[in-house]
Amino acid sequence: MNVLEWIERMFEHYGYFVLLLGLPIDFIALPLPPGQTTLTYTGYLVYKGVLELLPAILMAYAGSIIGITVTYILGYQIGAPIIERFGKWILIKPTHLERTKRIYEKYGNKMLFISFFVPGVRQFFGYFVGIIRIPFRTFALFAYPGALIWVLVFISLGNIFGEQWQKIFVLVERYLGYFFAGLGVFVLAILIVRWRKWWLKKPDNKPMQ
To answer: What is the pTM of this model?
Structure first.
């Protein structure tokens, strides 16, 4: 049985509850079908008249909120204490977490907003934000609107393109992959340039004339 057949059977048996229960499992990173496939197929079921649009959006959004919040709480309540206690064994010191938190506060909120669109990052980011103990209000301010946009985009894909949803979904995922790969290279290049400037400013590392 392939992934799509499995999702079809789940919807046949559980309807909207697939979204309420399945999407949190996707965020917790258990080996089940990815959330973006489930959402796009949900839109297709809306297109066919099997599901209603508004209840589908509401259940999907609720499932997403539950999932991302659970990962944040697990990171905050379990991940952070583990790192604080055993981090030295993997060369992670409290000062490293504080430095990471400061960098996140400067640059990371926008990444949290768009992390839903990147499989792997979506499942990891909630834990990460919890581990570095970003305040819940800040987390929710960026994560919850990001979750809503994620839900609307992929349900809309299935609903608008109907029978062609699989072809469009493959194209969207491919170009999202290109976009975020390019963005990652761009960010890495900026970090390298900044590190090089910092290194050259050190008195004992200036280039020889």
So the answer is: 0.74
Q: Which amino acid is at 46?
A: V
Q: What is the pLDDT of residues 17-40, one digit of tens each?
A: 888 888 888 888 765 667 888 898
| Tokens standing for residue 53 | 């649009």
d(CA 180, CA 72): 23
The token pair that represents 102 in the structure block: 């400061």
Structure tokens at 189: 């290049």
Q: In total, how many domains does the chain have?
A: 1
State how far the Cα of 111 lies from the Cα of 146, in Å rounded to an integer. 10
Report the 10 Å Cβ neighbour count for 205: 9
Q: Within 13 A of 75's CA, how many CA atoms are on the CB side?
A: 24
The C-alpha atoms of residue 188 and residue 186 are separated, in whole angstroms, by: 5
Which two structure tokens, joined as six digits, stand for 145? 């609107």
Q: Which residue range(s) make up the domain with 17?
A: 3-205
What does the alpha-carbon distance between residue 66 and residue 68 come to, in Å, rounded to a whole number?
Answer: 6
Helical packing angle, 121-131 and 94-114, nearest 10°: 140
In this prediction, residue 149 carries a pLDDT of 92
Cα–Cα nearest to 36, from 125, 140, 158: 158
